[in-house]
Specification:
By secondary structure, the protein is an alpha/beta fold. The two termini are about 20 Å apart. The chain is built from twelve helices and 15 strands. A hairpin with a 2-residue loop joins strand 10 and strand 11. The strands form four sheets. A seven-stranded mixed sheet has the order 1-9-8-5-4-2-3, with helices on both faces. It has two domains: about 230 residues, Aspartate Aminotransferase, domain 2 (3-Layer(aba) Sandwich); about 120 residues, Aspartate Aminotransferase, domain 1 (Alpha-Beta Complex), CATH 3.90.1150.10.
Length: about 375
Amino acid sequence: MSNKTMSTQTQIPLVDLRAQQLEVQQQVNESLAQIFENTAFIGGAAVTDFEQSYASFLGSGHCVGVGNGTDALELALRASGIGPGDEVILPANTFIATAEAVSLTGATVVLVDVDPEYLLIDPLAVAEAVTEKTKAIMPVHLYGQTAFIEELSPIARACGAVIIEDAAQAQGATRHGRNAGTLGDIAGTSFYPGKNLGAAGDAGAVLTSNEQLATRVRLLSAHGSRTKYVHEIVGRNSRMDAVQAVVLSAKLEHLARWNELRRQAAARYNELLAGVEGVILPQQAMGNHDVWHLYVVQVLDRDRVVAELNAAGIGAGIHYPHPVHLTQAFAHLGYKAGDFPVAERAAGRILSLPLYPHITEEQQRRVADVLISVL
């Protein structure tokens, strides 16, 4: 059978949101009808209800809905007093938004390598990167894992830095029973549609149990204003809208079950690919209960493998092909190839296989068969 024929017969996307949408469609439609009836499009009861529900789901004192995940991280940084002259330590292996948020505050991005097994921020590297200018450490809970916050906390305390979690890929993930997004001082998360908890457009949230930080985030995200036309500080416009809030509230009711389906799918891939030569499978760290936002394997000759998977109708992806320091956007930091060997090696080998709550065993078997055939 030709690749063209396989492509037309067995398209398996990297992410498929349709089944999720069908589960919540009636509830969302009813809630949207109410929103359009009362015309409360920005903020209002729908947003407040979601904020309270998501804070309760995670065990966080406060949830502040904002425009997107990048804004969430920037607002968390600004609320923590981070700005020009400060240094923020984050992993080289992350989506560029983590570093962008730091740059937008005027602070300096300080990159460190990741550990070779889980590709999460390496606490030993963080300890070596601390200077008198270090004001924040930003672990990224990558791929649905949770970073080792308990190893970062003593480092942060010793240098007086805050821990700001990037929890965009770990909604519902836990470490030692505590939810990602509640382990540091403050966290930002994204509800981009493809996330485990995804909106119908852009949306994000800041999470913290510190009331002063939460109040500061609300002020910064609403033009520096608590009362209309009374502006205490220079802020910005980054508010969650009611349309996104009702979609998120409906999906939140299903999130725990959807995450469990992701775990089952990851376990199935582990079985299907066990012992396959040339494939390094992802591992779950002891103490973690991952939510498998992505199922990321490592292979040699990755670009060819991805191309052949795609040609066969398998929606494989790469997260991420370039470490932050090797992007043109952050060339000014002065890092060079070889500075972060673990992240760089992984960037040439990682590929993400299709995984979503409603993926079927038949689809996964097809993915595994094609992957094995093209190695």
